[in-house]
Amino acid sequence: KQEVTQIPAALSVPEGENLVLNCSFTDSAIYNLQWFRQDPGKGLTSLLLIQSSQREQTSGRLNASLDKSSGRSTLYIAASQPGDSATYLCAVVTGANNLFFGTGTRLTVIP
Amino acid sequence: EAGVTQFPSHSVIEKGQTVTLRCDPISGHDNLYWYRRVMGKEIKFLLHFVKESKQDESGMPNNRFLAERTGGTYSTLKVQPAELEDSGVYFCASSQDMVNNEQFFGPGTRLTVL
Lengths: 111, 114
Known about the structure:
The structure holds 2 protein chains of 2 kinds. Chain A has no helices and 11 strands. Chain A is mostly beta strands. In chain A, strands 2, 4, 5, 9, 10 and 11 form a 6-stranded mixed beta sheet that branches. Chain A has a 5-stranded antiparallel beta sheet with strand order 1-3-8-7-6, with no helix packed on it. Chain A is globular. By secondary structure, chain B is mainly β. Chain B is built from no helices and 11 strands. The radius of gyration of chain B is 13 Å and the shape is globular. Chain B starts with a strand and ends with a strand. Chains A and B meet through β4, β5, β9 and β10 of A and β4, β5 and β10 of B.
């Protein structure tokens, strides 16, 4: 059974700092991996989708990497801003075509 | 382009009552998914429609939950009768195809069963 773990559960950083969020999954037979952000009381916003054949994806200040064989992904956020404060969720898609989610990392960027 | 919408945003009902949640996917998306997050837990899959057909309903907790997608457009998720443990946030997502499968989520419906 697929299990997704995100470390740390919470993170506070000063504005401007670069940071890395970690995601690990137990079953490497995934189709793709998706990173989301969730603001309090809101839905999930898709940030990046990495197909299983890809190693990384970039969007603006965000860069996500995928090491499928070791069951790991990282989300790198450059030059963090207070507006980046949110919960970041990692989810993987298996053959069943549904998402398995981690419990998320709650990020606070301090001005 | 309109995103995934869900109605209502909040629902408070008493144990034993019935509640129906609605999801309107992004236009043209054949795949529609329901997920749920209960307090303190991760978001978990409930079921997946491809057009009007249930592709996978392995995550549905029990037979008190009934999902439909008439005509392959919007979907409803009915809970009857509701129990205390059904409280949580119910998310709907849609995707254009199964190969790429980037899923776009709605804002969720927060259900509280008293």
